[in-house]
Design goal:
Layout (H helix, E strand, L loop, with lengths): L2 H14 L4 H36 L3 H14 L15 H11 L8 H22 L1 H6 L4 H17 L4 H13 L18 H17 L46 H10 L9 E6 L1 H7 L8 H5 L2 H11 L9 H4 L2 H7 L2 E5 L1 H6 L6 E7 L2 E7 L12 H16 L1 H12 L8 H7 L15 E2 L6 E2 L9
Parallel strand pairs: 1-2
Antiparallel strand pairs: 1-3, 3-4, 5-6
Length: 462
Amino acid sequence: MSLVGDLAARAHSVAAGPIPAAVRTATRAHLTDAAGALVAGHTSLHGPVERLADSLGLGDARRTAFVGGVYAHCWETGDIHRGAVLCPGCIVLPATLAVLPACPSVSTEQFERAYLAGYEVALAAAIAVRGERLIQRGWWPTALVAPLGGAAAVSVLLGRSQASTASAIALAAQHAGGVIAGTTERADGRHLLSGFAAERAVTAVLAADAGWTGPLDILDDPRSPIQRVDPEAGLVSGYLLPETSLKPHAGAKHLQSAIDAVLALRGQVSGEIERLTCYLPAQLAKVIDRPPPFGSVLNALGSAQFVLAVSALRGRCTPADFDGGTLRDEELLALAGKIHIETADDLSAAYPAKWGARIEITTASGTVHAERLDARGDPGSPLSEAEITDKFVTLAGGSLGEEKARAVAESLLHPDPAGPPSTLSEYLLPLLGSPSRELRADTLVPSLDGAVPAGARTGGSS
C-alpha cells in the first residue's frame, strides 16, 4: 500500500478503534492548549487577519480555517513534536473547527477522535519524510506536512470513506508549500503560513468531495520533495500525540529548554549579569542567534537574545512580554547584548530527539550553570493539568476574562464525551467568523469505490 493509503487507514482506525485512557487525556490536553493559542492570536491579530481573509474571498469553511490557522500559531505557544519537527495543533484545530457547524450531531468523543486522527496522520507522515531534513532546507515541515493531518481529521469528522480520506490526504500533499527562509526584521508574512496550511487542509476535502482525486503515490515518488525517506519502512507504531511537547513559554521551541534553565538560575544570580552564554544544538543555534535591535515582534519571538533576556529580567516569557515597548526597553536591550549563542557537540548529536540547552551566567560573584535536555512540557516532563489551565488563562484571559477562561479550560479538559462539543462552538467559533455552509456530513451516497457526496464530479484525474 502507498504511504498515503497507510495514513488514511491509520486515521480511520483511530476514529473507530479503542483508545487508551491516557491517550484520551493527552488529546484533551493538546486540544485545550491549541485552543488557548488560538484565542491569544485572535486577541492580537484579529483586525488585520479578518481584513485579509475578507479580501481573499474565501468561502466560509476555508475562511474559518485560514483565520484560525493564523491565530493558532501567532505567538508560537502551540505544541510541537521534536522528532517530527512538526506543530500539529495550529493546523488540525482550525481545520476541524471550520467544519464543525456542518456536523450538528457530532459528539465530543467523535470530535476528539477526529482531532487525534489528524495528529497521528500528520506526525506519522512527518516522521516518514523526516521533518528535520525539510527544515534544514528552509521548508517549514508544519506547512508542508501538517495539512495531511488536517485533511484526515476533517474527512473523518465528516464521516467520509477511507478512500475519500486517502484522496484528500494526497491532494493536501500535492498542494503543499511553505518556506521559512529569509529574515523577519521587516517582514511578517510568516504569520500567514499556518493559516494557508489549515485552509489547504479543508480545501483538499472540498476537492475530494467534488470528485477530484489526488495521486496516492505522491509520498512514494522519488521526484517528490516530501518523499518518504525509507521506502521499505512502514508507519511508526504507537500513538504519537502523547509524544508531542507542550510549550510552557511563548517563543520558538528551539529555546524552551534554555528558558527553563535561565529561570532555574535566577535565584542563584546576584548582581548585574556580565555575560550569558547559551549552548544549543548546531541545527538550532544559527536560526535563533538574533542580537538586538529587534525589528519586529515576529523577529523577537525567534531571538534567543530577546527571549532569554526577558526570562532573566521578568521570570517569565509570555505574549504580554512582546509588546513594542519591551522591544525598545533599554535594560532589556543592554542584557540582550551580553547574550552569546554557542553550539555543543553533545547537544547536536541528541537532536532532533532532544532539543536541549546549556546556560552559563557570569556576574561579579562568579559563574553559575544549568542544563536542560528536556523542557517542561516534553514527554517525560509533562505539564500538570493545573499548569495547562494556568497557561490557557494566560493566553485567553485577555479576551475571555480570567474566570471564564478558567471555566473554558476546565470544560475542555473534562468534557462530557457523549455531549456535543459545545465549548468549541460557543467560545472559539465566534472568534473565527461565520459558520460553514459548504460542507454537510449527511450528503453521502454509495458508489462503486466508496462513498462520495451526492452530485460530486466524477472522472477526475491525478
